[in-house]
Amino acid sequence: MADAYIYDAVRTPRGKGKPDGSLHEITPVQLGAQVLNAIVERNNISDDNAPDDAIFGCVMPVGEQGSNIARTAVLMSDLPQTTAGVHVNRFCASALEATNMAAAKVMTGEADLTIAGGVESMSRVPMGADGGALMSDPHVTFHNYVVPQGISADIIATKYGISREDADLYAVESHKRSAKSWERGDFNNQIIPVKDVIGLNVLDKDETIRPTTDMQAMGSLGPAFLGLGEMMPGFDKVALQRYPELEKINHIHTAGNSSGIVDGAAAILIGSKEAGEKLGLKPRARIKAMASCGSEPTIMLTGPEFVTEKVLARSGMSKSDIDRWELNEAFASVVLRYMQAMDLDHSEINVNGGAIAMGHPMGATGAMILGTALGEMERSNKETGLVTLCIGGGMGTATIIERV
Amino acid sequence: MTYKTFTFEIDADGIALMTIDLPGQSMNVWNEDLIEDYIKAVDEFCANDDIKGMVITSGKTSGFLAGADLRMLGNMPADATAQQMFDANFKLQAAVRKMETAGHSAKNLTKGLAHAKPVACALNGLALGGGMELALGCHYRVATDGKFQMGQPEVQVGLIPGAGGTQRTMRLAGVQNAMQICTQGKPMDAKTALSQGLIHEIAPAADVVAKAKEWVKANPKSNAPWDKKGFKVPGGAGAMDPRVVPIFAGFSAMAQVATRHNYPAVRRILSSIYEGSIVPIDVGLRIESKYFVQCLMEPQAKNMIRTLFVNKQAAEKGADRPKSVGEIPMKKVGVLGAGMMGAGIAYVTARSGMDVVLLDRDMDAAEKGKDYSRKLNDKGISRGKLTKEKSEAMLAKIHTTASYDDLKDVDLIIEAVFEDPGVKKDVIEKTEAVIRDDVVFASNTSTIPISNLAKNSKRPDQFIGIHFFSPVDKMPLVEIIPGDKSGDLPLAAALDYVGKIKKTPIVVSDTRGFYCNSVVMPYLNEASRMVAEGINPALIENCALDMGMPVGPLALTDETSQELGLRIMRSAQEELGDKYQPTGVEDLMEKFVEELGRKGRKSGGGYYDYPEGGKKALWPELSKHFPLAADQPTPEEVTDRLMFIQLASVAKCFDNDIVHDPQSADLGAIFGWGFAPWTGGPMSHIDTMGVDNYVAKADALAQKYGERFAPPASFRDKKGFYEAA
Q1: Do B548 and B688 have their domain in common?
Q2: B377 with B442, same domain?
Q3: Pairwise CA distance, residues A358 & A190, whole Å
Q4: B112 backbone φψ class: left, alpha, beta (φ>0; ψ -120 to 50)
Q5: Quick check: B403 contacting A, CB < 8 Å?
Q6: Residues B523 and B489 in one domain
């Protein structure tokens, strides 16, 4: 089997996912095309050595993100029409899944050069826009005791003894780290400012970081999922049927200690050794191992610990082999539980901050945090990193990368 | 053609009038005869070009059509295949659709290549279940402004509407209304039906047929709304409609909370509506029929129909009433003792139209008892369920007194004084001194054997126990306990009285705790025993709730109070001496009452704290006094203990003839202590799992946890209880 190497990783800044967000005027196709163009420009890609395929994550693939946003973005980019495109939906891990699929194509020899990534304009195609049986078909919801993710995050907090204060402390630190990383220029090599149709920069920095936030500000926010859980329609009592050992669900999550709703896109160039040589590129990292797993769907967001065990076992590695840990900050309790399960200190994980501060553009996040981890490994001269995300429906996806 | 179940007359305008009037029945229902007739009549209606339209009404003053004859479902052969069951159900489904389309295809109707013949329904009274479904298959519905109800109550016996109810309700009233109507099963009045688009017009009862005919005449080409081009479900439909996705998600959650996954019919109703809202009606009807058949393929509906419908009705009609006794006048009832029980008994008696003489030691005490009725009536008035006038008339029926002389013309005595043999003796003697000698004396004791009390009576053959549960106005069951000398008269009187107050009676033996408390106490004790073992209290409570119990056993222990629990154990200990069988929770109860000062909900809390105006929460210090075990059992293990301790106690009562038949055992369980209704009751549940499987599991539990789980020896060679009967 061939090795798959990462040659480049770029992302847009993340814009607030509301009508007053800076990226709200930019179509998702444009977000996708602009990161693809950056890959083309930065890596000497031409019609002769163009990637075989572009695989994009997108979690709401309907409306203007529908009918294969990856191919649409390719057609609107500087890539030649010979580059194919496919979108994938592994919910929040879509772009990491895209990465793993792109790597697999290279490893198996199906492709020499691929682009992985993702796009999500949450301000333009809101969550829930795709309907779907998972949340609405009674056969499915009954069979699986389906509750919204926020309730799941609160189940984790209740079951594993994570308090509101723990979560708020984590969230404050996420903002601090994100701000510091920006200040230090950690992201400079990754960021592709987004341009409008007349060539002006509409956004060149993540829009939702609050460097000065503190426990008081965090503490002033109300629990976001209390109403859904305890009042209408009362999801807590659905959750307690799956977790009868709990007397009640503690609703600790707020808009402050959960990931932000944002717009953004990311792309990663992955190829074989020969493909890189042809482009005159130096590989930055090798994709060492990949895995996905399913986990209990009501608590939904505990997949990362299980997929981590799986990917370590599959690659014959152990926890001590990992120098940098990156887990998407979907909710504070997800990371705090993962730290408990893996016995990690906060200083070892998400050292550049994460989605609580910078936002979680669902279809793109996996590629963004992979880029973050790679950048940090290069900055701090570390060898091995593990990137993972929790996933709706009860799943986990993970990738281990190794600098070369 | 002539028909057995309705008249079918065609007038000069070519309008057929189908007047459903089942011979020999007080109410129209879908039975095999009506279905057969109806299918033929629909064929005639479609085939005969001289028939231009049709009006359907009922010849009964009792209403239009009350749904399916539930006994009919029992006639399905036990080995019927899915296809056979589907065909049997789809017969009616297809006939209603044929009537609606005049036999034309939906395609031709929507394209305007054909049109249906107008059919209107003259609803002269209630239309429930299949009655409502027949009405919805008509193009126009006129309802009487008199007594009227419309609804889809199938869910209450574990079924779903199976003649288009989910599909047409959804297409007329929208997804949300349809889910409410079909999953809750509550009937609605004419105004609500009109506002939801389920009927078109309300008219005086005498005019409904004329109005229906008028409409038929005026609308010779009439398609159902869903057979017209461009039809859309009101409010949106389907998995892709952002307006209804949250409705489906929310409703699924609410239904899961309400049913705890114990009633698959509810989920099937939601699925019929969800899936049916995405496809044309012909496909939707097929989907509905398949979910209906799924209900028939499982034992739940059969069990629920048997207990909650057939046996409940039989008990309420006095199945156990001795035929030798003629009608007993029951106009005035003497209630002795105006405490909590007496006050409740006075309330339910007066509410049912009987006069009450409410007697206590002094007027103040008697009036205090009457205050209970005043309070409940005021609540009813504030909720708009009762008028001031009706309340006053009801209260006027309760005559408070401290004088035994006022009892001289009562037709029945119900004694509910303090549970003290001396006090009871005194009251019995004083009462019998004034009442007529044909009047039955009933005691509401819960702890003293009836035969012992009857020794104080001049007429022990007219003495009986009528055991109410607290709170009397809410609890639907009454235990009737003949003493060893009770004759037929007191049994007949007790059943007549319980019939009048519209509660469900069961007849049980005169033994300590009678039937219900003989099961409830071991059940509650099992939960306390688990706490003492260090099992997580939340797990115990949730397992009970998930099993279908209305409250957790620890919460119920708080309600009945640790104090009473301890007192009962101690008095049993005293009375039985060496024969006393330890409950295993004597120490725990003593600790709660005497050491921790947690005597029950009303005195300092128990397992729970009860903050004023807040939700109850498990006492945070519980785990300090009963530390959690490191190894916790699985939910299945806890559920088994909670379920099988009840089954074992019921089995013991049945084996000892404390409860005489499986019907009473099941009714008493569901309506007495809230045993999971989805099972049809404990005896039905044992039958459903198979008696041999029950015995094997009970044996295993007895080995693991103790003899209290052991099955009676007589169960070992039983095949079944209902099947065998």
Answers
A1: yes
A2: yes
A3: 14
A4: left
A5: no
A6: no
Count CA within 13 A, CB hemisphere, residue B301.
25
CATH number of residue B338's parent domain: 3.40.50.720
- The H or E element containing residue B8 is strand B6-10
What string of H, E and C letters represents the secondary structure of A253-297?
Answer: CCCCCECCCEEEEEEEEEECHHHHHHHCCCCCEEEEEEEEEECCC
CB distance from B241 to chain A under 8 Å?
yes
Instruction: Please report whether residue B44 resides in a domain.
Output: yes
Assess B258–A contact: CB distance below 8 Å, yes or no. Answer: no
Q: Which of A138, A237, A247 sits opposite B618 (nearest CB)?
A: A247
- In tens, the pLDDT along A209-224 reads 999 999 999 999 999 9
Question: How many Å separate Cα B167 from the centre of its chain?
Answer: 26
Task: Confirm whether B313 is domain-assigned.
Answer: no
Residue labelled with tokens 């009792």: B62
Length of chain B: 725
B78 and B186 share one domain:
yes
User: How many inter-chain contacts (A to B, CB under 8 Å) are there?
Assistant: 94
- pLDDT, chain B, mean: 95
Per DSSP, the three-state class of A125 is coil
Please give the Cα distance from B145 to B141 (Å, whole number): 13
Q: Which domain holds residue B180?
A: 6-297
Domain boundary (B507, B532, B566) is at: B507
pLDDT score recorded for residue B74: 73
B62 and B185 fall within a common domain: yes
Q: Do B617 and A131 touch (CB under 8 A)?
A: no
Q: How many domains does chain B have?
A: 3
Q: Which CATH number covers residue B208?
A: 3.90.226.10
Strand-pairing partners, residue A8, are: A269
Q: Determine, yes or no, domain membership for B364.
A: yes
Q: What is the pLDDT of residues B286-303, one digit of tens each?
A: 999 999 999 999 999 999
* Cα–Cα–Cα angle for B470, B475, B476, rounded to 5 degrees: 145
Asked if B212 contacts B119 with a C-beta cutoff of 8 angstroms, the reply is: no
Q: Could you give the angle at the alpha carbon of B242 between the alpha carbons of B238 and B244, nearest 5°?
A: 55
Chain B residue numbers touching A133 (CB-CB < 8 A): 239
Same domain, B521 and B611: yes
The catalytically annotated residue of A58, A87, A92, A253 is A92
Per-residue pLDDT of B57-75, as tens digits, reads: 999 999 999 999 988 877 7
Q: What's the predicted TM-score (pTM) here?
A: 0.94
Interchain pair A141, B253: CB under 8 A: yes
Which of A128, A234, A246 shows the shortest C-beta gap to B245? A128
- Please, are residues A186 and A377 in contact by the beta-carbon 8 Å criterion? no
Residues B552 and B679 in one domain: yes
CB contact under 8 A, A145 and B248: no
Q: Above 0.90 for ipTM, yes or no? A: yes
Are A12 and A34 a contacting pair, CB within 8 Å?
A: yes
Do B538 and B481 have their domain in common?
A: no
Instruction: Tell me the C-alpha distance between A290 and A387, whole Å.
Output: 10
Tell me the Cα Rg of chain A.
Answer: 20
Would you say residue B723 lies in a domain?
Answer: no
A390 is catalytic: yes
Q: What's the CATH number where B632 sits?
A: 1.10.1040.50
- Non-local CB neighbours of B326 within 8 Å, separated by 6+ positions: none
| Last residue in a domain, options B453, B478, B507 | B507
What tokens appear for A176 in the block? 């601090």
- Please indicate whether, in this complex, the C-beta atoms of B239 and A133 are within 8 angstroms of each other: yes
Helix axes B516-532, B537-547, angle to 10 degrees: 150
Do the Cβ atoms of B251 and A132 come within 8 Å?
no
